[in-house]
Specification:
With about 180 residues, this protein is α/β, with parallel strands linked by helices. It folds into 3 domains: about 40 residues, no CATH class; about 80 residues, Nucleotidyltransferase, domain 5; about 40 residues, no CATH class. Helices cover about 45% and strands about 20% of the residues. It has 6 helices and 5 strands. A 5-stranded mixed sheet has the order 3-2-1-4-5. The longest helix is centred in the last third of the chain and has 25 residues.
Amino acid sequence: MLFLARWARRLSWKETAGAFRTSWDKVFDAVEHVVIWGLEHRMLGQIDAIGVDEIQYSKGHKYLTLVYQIDLGVTRLLWVGKERTIEPFQGFFTTIGEEITSKIVFICSDMWEPYLKVIRENCSEALHILDRFHIVAKMNKALDEVRAGESRRMVSEGRTPLLKKSRWLLLKREENLKAE
């Protein structure tokens, strides 16, 4: 089983089955056996920092939640949960236990509300670092809302809105702006 599982890391499971004249199901069983053995014998130890993200695995908004240990010198996948909702992510904290959870110092995640809620409930003392991409996206959305609101206000006051077509002007460097 270990032999097949190691080859299944290098080749697709179908290719592994073909190369060693066995079935895809036998390769699956070998990989499953090795994964179960690994989980039973895994030593988590001290975990200071984790990262939480999701990955889409199929069309139609089907996601897996991934939790990584991202300590200095140690980067490893700790847990995979089906879907990106509260229940599966809560399962991660249940799996590692309260003792390890209480010692987590840093958490990196995006701004997905179920993640934020579970992190707030389980690691309220940890420093929560948010994904820069999502912060910039929220900031740009807020800027657009303010710009559009000010433009509407100016029109209602009978003034010509100077903010039309200015979305990207506000983000330009001062030295790149033209007089008009």
